[in-house]
Structures are given as C-alpha cells and as structure tokens.
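In the design runs reported in the main text, the only information available to the sequence generator was the tokenized backbone. The following block is the verbatim input for one such run; it is reproduced so that readers can re-run the procedure and compare outputs position by position.
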C-alpha cells in the first residue's frame, strides 16, 4: 500500500508540473480535527478561467484543487492523503478585497484507513468542503474551510473525519 501511495504522489506531482502554466496558486493550510489531530495541507489550485451569473453583486467561478495533507497523530495514527476536487466559488464584487464562499466535492486517497480513533473503512474517500474567505488584489487569499472525508458507505466501517482549517493561497 505504501508503494502505491508513493506512486500516486509522484503522479500527482508530475501532473501538477505539467499544468503549472495554468495554475492560479499554491495553497497552505493548517487545521485540526474534532479529535484534536493537527492537519497540514499543501496544494495547488488551477483556475477554470470562466465566470457565470456575473452581476453587480458578484460572479460564480471555480478551480481544480489538488493537495497533499499530513494528518499528525501519535506514532500509530498519523496519516497522509492526496486529494483532487472541483470547487465552485461565488466571489462577491469588490475593488481591493473580494469576499467569497466556496463548496466542492472530490476524491481522496489515504495511506492507511485510520485517523486517530476514526476507522475510514477504505483508503478511497470522498472529500466534501465548504469555506469562505477574502481575495485580495494581486491574487492572495485567506479563508476558513471545513472538509469532510467519508467513503460514502462504499465500505464499512465508515466513521469519516472532518478537518477545520485556516488557509492561505498565493498566486504563482
């Protein structure tokens, strides 16, 4: 399983390298689960470069998110995950600061099937997220995000796990 996870990490890194010309930014996040497990996330965002429902209030847009997350637990319960998600963003109008709300559903692969006392049931998980934040002139972004991981009942047990994080995205 560890070899498969390493191969997936290399493939993700190579895929990210081939898309860097379209990348919107690099994301850094620090969070915590309800069991007090710390999470550290490093990701890339690839802007869709499209807008819908544009008005004086704001616009609907989105991005692809690919990320690596380290789940810090005790010696037997730390974990690693790779995730990939399409994310919809409603960005409110503004001159130098634009508030936004985001939501997305994607997939994740965990190195093992436990995070602290949560038994995930399988390495494959769905990643659901909801967040909000501020975008600044120049492409910098800060926000708060809740992310839920679950196998959607595909296998048992299906305890799932949530991470609540503060994130910063810088443009490339």
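Verbatim output:
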């Amino acid at each position: 399983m560890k070899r498969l996870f390493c191969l997936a990490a290399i493939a993700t890194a190579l895929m990210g390298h081939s898309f860097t010309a379209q990348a919107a930014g690099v994301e850094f996040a620090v969070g915590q689960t309800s069991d007090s497990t710390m999470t550290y996330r490093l990701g890339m965002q690839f802007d869709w470069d499209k807008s819908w429902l544009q008005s004086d209030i704001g616009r609907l847009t989105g991005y692809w998110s690919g990320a690596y997350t380290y789940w810090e637990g005790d010696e037997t319960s730390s974990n690693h995950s790779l995730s990939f998600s399409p994310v919809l963003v409603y960005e409110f109008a503004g001159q130098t600061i634009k508030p936004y709300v985001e939501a997305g559903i994607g997939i994740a692969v965990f190195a093992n099937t436990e995070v602290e006392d949560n038994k995930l049931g399988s390495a494959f998980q769905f990643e659901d997220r909801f967040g909000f934040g501020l975008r600044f002139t120049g492409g910098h972004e800060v926000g708060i995000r809740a992310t839920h991981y679950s196998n959607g009942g595909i296998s048992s047990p299906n305890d799932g796990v949530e991470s609540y994080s503060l994130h910063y995205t810088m443009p490339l």
